[in-house]
Amino acid sequence: MSDNRKEMLDFCLKCSICHTQCPMVAKNPSYPGPKHLGPEAERLRLTGKNPSRDEQNKYLSYCLNCKRCDEACPHGVKPSVYNVKNKTSINNAGQESLRDWILAHNDWWGRIAGKMPGVSNFFLKNPFIKTGMSLLGIAPQRSFPAYKSKKLKIARDTKDKKAVYFRGCYARSNEPDIAQSVIKLLEYAGYQVEIAPLGCCGTPVISNGLMTEAKKIAEKNIQTLCQYVEKGYKIVSSCPSCTLTLKEEYDEFFDIPGSKKVSQSVWDIFELLLHDNVEFPGSNKKFSRVIYHVPCHLKAQGIGTPAANLIRKYVVNSLKVMDKYCCGISGTFGFKKEKYDLSMKIGNDLFEEIKKEPYSLVLTDCGTCKLQIEQGTGLHVIHPVVILAETIEK
Ligand code: SF4
Ligand code: SF4
Fold first, then answer.
1. Which end of the chain, N or C, is less packed with Cβ atoms under 10 Å?
2. Which class does domain 161-275 fall in?
3. Half-sphere exposure of residue 29: CA atoms within 13 angstroms, side-chain side
4. Which ligand is nearest to the Cα of residue 81, counting in written order?
5. CB-based pocket (< 6 A), ligand 1
6. What predicted TM-score, i.e. pTM, was given to this entire model?
7. Tens-digit pLDDT profile for residues 181-190
């Protein structure tokens, strides 16, 4: 823990504002909440005298790392950071720990499955494979997103403005149309685009408390991205969790040279398009009654809702922006058998809101929020880059 973090503890005035904003507290009354589990428990940990340590550790795996407590704190304390850091102290039983390890390595599975997506998708639907997953502790109600591969088209002309696109696991292995849309938008905005030769940002590994491995991923990503930054590239991401991890988490958890340089060069795709004042054709708005779910990790970046601003201006006639609810899946959390019901319970308010009206489109920027909303509502969910890119002529 940095000295800075120790100082931050003293800023916690126990006002409980964070507690009122925690989606886990709202749906699971036995959860101690951000104030107790974060700064209060950390004070005791630092003294080495924490009689209820084991009891508290049990609840750490219930923290969604949604960061709503951090945003709510009027004193700049970040309870989620203590929770994530202390997850490393949870001693899971063997099977649970193997299951968490499997879920945390979606990047590896994506690389393997992406080589033969048809075969992989066939096996993923196989009842025997599903039973095996269930025995390992993966919720049988969940379906993993289908794998898809696509050769991306990138223009090879040289331009003054340069962007390196950090795709993340979902846009690379499951929905390459998102990646193609981002490339199209960046090229339209006048950027020469490169794809970062990197895999996972490390979010699932961090969420599961595998911090030694997360540090190695962070080191590799920072080292590679630093080389681009030094050549004048902006780093662009279309996944809010990847963006937040590159912008804040590496710096928060690890002391790696270059992390500041990287974090200061990272942009959410819509944040960059707005910053550059890019104008889109969009004269023919074709959608009415569209709803947009703002992922927690986008909210946590404190950049507002740049996707909503552009979509409202160029693509839709009426847009409802939902930033009040956590969808409840929290990456790998909702895939865990013992957490599945709670995950759906947390997402239920959002599902009900979406089902209230006959929306013609449901949008969100995050791959796992999309899975959760689709499962909870039965509706198809689209990344906003896809519909904005469609406004550009080929
Ligand atoms: S962490 Fe912040 S919001 Fe939570 S109790 Fe402490 S001061 Fe209040
Ligand atoms: S990160 Fe989210 S789930 Fe965890 S304590 Fe904070 S508000 Fe609650």
1. C
2. alpha beta
3. 0
4. 2
5. 12-18, 34-35, 39, 72-73, 75, 77, 79
6. 0.93
7. 999 999 999 9
